[in-house]
Specification:
The chain is α+β, with helices and mostly antiparallel strands. It is 38% helix and 24% strand. The model has no long low-confidence stretch (mean pLDDT 90).
Length: 214
Amino acid sequence: MTGPVLTAELLLHGYAAGIFPMAEDRDNPEVFWVDPKLRGIMPLEGFHISRSLARRMRRRVYQATLNQDFAGVVTACADRDVTWINDTIFDLYLQLHDNGFAHSLELWDGPDLIGGVYGVTLGAAFFGESMFSRATDASKIALAFLVDHLRTTGFTLFDTQFITPHLTTLGAIEIPRGNYHKKLAKALNTKADFLGKADMPPVQDVLQRMTQRS
C-alpha cells in the first residue's frame, strides 16, 4: 500500500509496527510498505560459518568498524542493476543515522572498504536493510561480525525481512508473521545498546565464538 509522505519518524513507527519501506527501483519516487506473510530472521544463536568461510576469515586480517562510513555503505548497497533504494529512502536513512537509529558495519581489507551492512535499531531489534560485497565472502564476514556484535550488546532479534539463498547458507530462516510480531514485541520492550561496545574485536575472536556455537 502507498502511505503518506514519509518522514524519519514515520519510518520508525513503521518498523515498530512490523512493516518496512521499499521502492520499486531507484528511479521510482514512490515508496510503499511491506508486511510479508513469512518474515526472514537470522537467529543470533544459529549463525553458521562454513569451513570454507572460516578458512577465508583466517587467511586475511580483516577489520570491522561501526558507523565509520554510513553513507558509503548505503551508496554501495544501492550500486547494483536493480535496487529498492531510491533517493527518498537514501535521504531518510541518513536522517535516521544522524538521529542515532540507523547504523552501519563496515568491513575493511587494509584501506579498502570491501563489504558492509546497514540497518535500523529499536529496543533490542536490529532491522537489517541491505548489505554489499566487493570481495569474495565480504558480506558474509560482515554479517558474522554483526551477529557477534548484536549478541554481545544485548539484541534479541535480527530481522532480515526476506531470506535469500545467500542468507540461508548462514542460518537465516522464515517464520510466520504472527510469530515475528511476538518476537518483535518482546524485542521492543528490551534494552540494547548498539554502540555500547564501539571497538570491534579481531576477526579471530569472532570466528572462535561463532565456531564454538555452530
